[in-house]
Each structure stands twice: as C-alpha cells, then as structure tokens.
Amino acid sequence: MVSQEEHFRKTVAELRVAIAAVDVALFAIIEHSLTVFLIPVHRPPHYTNSFGLPGGVIGVHENAEKAAVRHLKEKAHIEGAHMEQLYTFSEPARDKRSRSISVAYVALVSPEQLLIGEKTEGKWIPIKRLPKLAYDHPEIIKVALERLKGKLAYTNIISNLLPRQFTLTELQHTYEIILARKLDKRNFRKKMLSTGLVKEAGKEKRTARRPAQLYTFVKRGLAIVPEMRAAL
Q: Does pLDDT of 204 surpass 80?
C-alpha cells in the first residue's frame, strides 16, 4: 500500500513539469465593434494556422501580474491598460504540447492608448468574427466577455474603453456594443446622469445634426456604482 508521504512525493515530482503561464484577453472598441487582440500561432503538429491571446510563461523572478504586463507590452505594445485577474485555467489538456496552468487576465484599452501602440504581428479582431483559436483560448475569451458584461451593471469599468471625452450617444452605443442589445435612450440618459458617474466636460462635439455636449468620467479608476443596473 502506498503511504501518504510516497503519494505526495510522486505528485510533486509529476507537477514539476507543469508550466506556469499567463494569458491576457485584451479588449478594445474599434470601428463600432468589440474587438480582441490576437497573435498568430503556428506550432506544428499541434497548432497550425491559428491565433491566440498574448501571453506566455511566468518568469523565474515574476509574479503572474508582472508577467501579464510584460507579455502585453512585448506582444501588443500596450502599456497602462486596465487589467484584472480573471480565472485560473488548469485543464490537463488545455495545451497539447505540455502540461500548463494559466492565470488569465482581462484587459481594456481606450482609443488614446491604441494610438500609442506600435505595429505588431498581432491583429484586432471583432468578437463576432473570431478565427481558429489555439489552446483553450475560446473558453478564456468567453469567460472574459462574461466578466466584462457582468461588471457593466455595477461598476464604471466601461470608462477604460472610451476616450476621455465623449457624448452620451457614444457612451450608450458602447454599452450596446458589449451587451449586444439596444437600450432605451431616454431611460439611459436619465439614469446615467443620476448616478453621478459622468459630468459635463465644458465642450461640445460637432455632429451632422447639431453640436453635442461632451462628458467625462468623474472617476477613471474602477469604482462600484450600484445604480448602473437601472440604466441598463
């Protein structure tokens, strides 16, 4: 009979081959679509002509968050994005090449941050038109999108996807893009203004019809806003 000590030592020995990694589901609103940043993956025979999320192994002297920030900078040339830990994906067969455990993150970037980014081999691809994905990245994207949609109802997380100044129409449209449904314009504006989440920027934006008042978020950092649910 195998003792508990022997079982423990065998388990530890087997786990030494597991790779600790990170993956980042990086979202942005581009051309009126919710998009995710993907990089080419071609690693025969397991993965050919596919795409995947930016990420990689956690360095010897890094924690998971620092590794995620590094991989995002190296592979997407994005810095300063809003990022939060999503979930740990650890299914034994998630990577056909070897045993790997990934700490996944969801990250959001605004239009201003996109302008700063340098050219990369990666692509911004609309969520509705995802290509063939490697590893368990379809599941990571699904969970990340659920997290984003869920937090819209009780936080100001959407501020990370908008420019610093925007119209209420642009704000509503961004919610509609992510939620994939229309919102009542009158109710949205009334409830949104009552939350104290946004304030007038003191400027107007020229539109085809008439100038529209520009707004800005009172607070850019993540905050709990329970009243948001009523606007959605």
A: yes
